[in-house]
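Re: the request from the purification team.
They wanted to know what the chain is likely to look like in 3D before they choose a buffer screen. I agreed to run a prediction and write the result into the notebook, where they can find it.
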Amino acid sequence: MRLFYDLHLHSCLSPCGDADMTPGNIVGMAALCGLQLIALSDHNTCRNTPAFVACAERAGLLALPAMEMTTREEIHILCLLPTLPAAAAFSDYVYRRLPDIRNDEAIFGAQLIMDAEDTVIGREPRLLASAADIGVYDVAALVTSYGGVALPAHVDRPSFSLFANLGFFDPAMGFTAVEISSYAEPEAFCRVHPGLEGLMTVQNSDAHDLGCIRDAAHVLEVPARTPQAVIEALRRGAPGDAG
């Protein structure tokens, strides 16, 4: 089964997310773009995931709980989880390891928690753009312990990426797939970084506003239309672009 995907989307809960990025609006735009498989990956939290999954179910899209976690080294890691309870538990674990820095809404904007009707039900007071006290060598095994899979995010970018911050990829980190920006050329990037040979590459929008959610272009081959099947496909890490 081939599914058009975008596994890296931010809601208005992310400090850099546009206020129009409500769960319902994201799902509606994803549907208009022809996407079939989506994931909400706010910075260091999964608190808007229940509303997002509910909206996706109503629209007939497959949604995964997710998070873009920032490691101790300030590397962004895309973490995909199989269920809402697993996402909530993982979110709590990461939250306890964030520094207690208050969000300044005048600088970063409001971090809005919403329900499935796009109603604001709370504001996150702690700044979610901070780095969690979790090392990059620990993330893959940690996310696996919650039933999920972790991928270094936008590895081709000059900031908050594995190569920008560390300068290398080490198989001992335990990653089986990596994310490359949607506008980049995966094969060319992997040739420059031989350590990525044999890993699956996925390409997502990393959308922070509705206009950045792209038309369906990339497909993931899965045996079944379930979050677990998606996670297993990424764990297998078949070489090359997911499609």
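For the purification team: The first strand starts at residue 2 and ends at 9.
Please add any questions underneath this entry.
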